[in-house]
Design brief:
mainly alpha; Rossmann fold
Length: 276
């Protein structure tokens, strides 16, 4: 019953669902009684009689720990829906292990903040047995604005969630470098906002991915050697110790230039990393 889980509960109650709650910090569970939830001091009691159990926890270890504690109270044939960001292997292992015990485990991580959970907006990911996904998807759709089904592999939704979070981490790292460069070159925040309010590179992502994965780097729109020159200017202006992403990118550029790709499109740096 953290920020995300508690707002999931409030939204469910608003839709007429009966919800029993538990949290390792009891006060977080009892705080939801004012909205109509029933809090329990033990997780086995909280899940007793429930057809569906939702988890929003920290990691693989906490999911396994809580499910082990909940086990004695689980209703035969209950469905466990886990919204925790975990490893793909963890999701695969839990799907198999709980199936052997007679329960359905579905991993459904989310790209949602607490306000999204309360408003039932955002994106939820799911994968696994098509029959199981088809059965739970209508209920999941009520919790979010969009459910993305990534097919029959139990761990695929977990991989996609981590992929998305990786992008967010690197994006934030890039923005941190951008701010460091601005500070070093006396660019004000008003000027930064002015640039990005007009020029929105986020809209370039689909086209950039297609270019990076095309396998054709011989007709450059920006030569790798020129991109490397700009990286050098950035490092000189801001200082290597003040940047995080650009030094690593410069090293990667140097690697590909040494292999003879200096005249290729700079997206050639992705050529050895493209999935099948």
């Amino acid at each position: 019953m953290g920020l995300l889980g508690s707002n999931f509960v409030r939204a469910m109650i608003n839709k007429g669902e009966t919800v029993q709650v538990w949290n390792r910090t009891p006060a977080k569970a009892t705080a939801l009684e004012q909205y109509g939830a029933k809090a329990f001091p033990g997780v086995a009691d909280a899940v007793r009689g429930a057809d569906t159990i939702h988890l929003t926890l920290k990691d693989d270890a906490s999911v396994d720990e809580v499910l082990d504690m909940a086990g004695p109270g689980l209703k035969p044939g209950a469905t466990i829906i886990d919204h925790t960001t975990t490893s793909a292997q963890g999701a695969i292992d839990r799907t198999k292990a709980w199936a052997k015990k007679g329960f359905t485990y579905v991993h459904a991580p989310v790209f949602m903040g607490p306000p999204n959970a309360l408003e039932s907006t955002g994106t939820m990911l799911v994968s696994g047995d098509p029959a199981v996904v088809a059965r739970v998807e209508p209920a999941l759709a009520k919790m979010t604005g969009k459910v993305l089904n990534f097919g029959p592999e139990a761990g695929k939704a977990a991989s996609m969630k981590l992929l998305g979070n990786l992008f967010l981490i690197t994006l934030t790292g890039g923005l941190a470098d951008t701010l460091s460069f601005a500070k070093s070159t006396d660019v004000t925040m008003d000027e930064v906002y002015k640039l990005f309010e007009t020029w929105n590179p986020a809209g370039m992502v689909p086209a950039r991915l297609k270019r990076m994965t095309s396998g054709n780097y011989s007709s450059p729109s920006w030569e790798l050697s020129m991109a490397r020159k700009d990286a050098r200017l950035m490092l000189e202006a801001a200082g290597r110790d003040n940047l995080t992403i650009i030094p690593a990118m410069a090293e990667k550029m140097d690697k590909y230039i040494s292999q003879g790709h200096g005249g290729d499109d700079w997206t050639v740096i992705a050529k050895d990393h493209i999935p099948a």
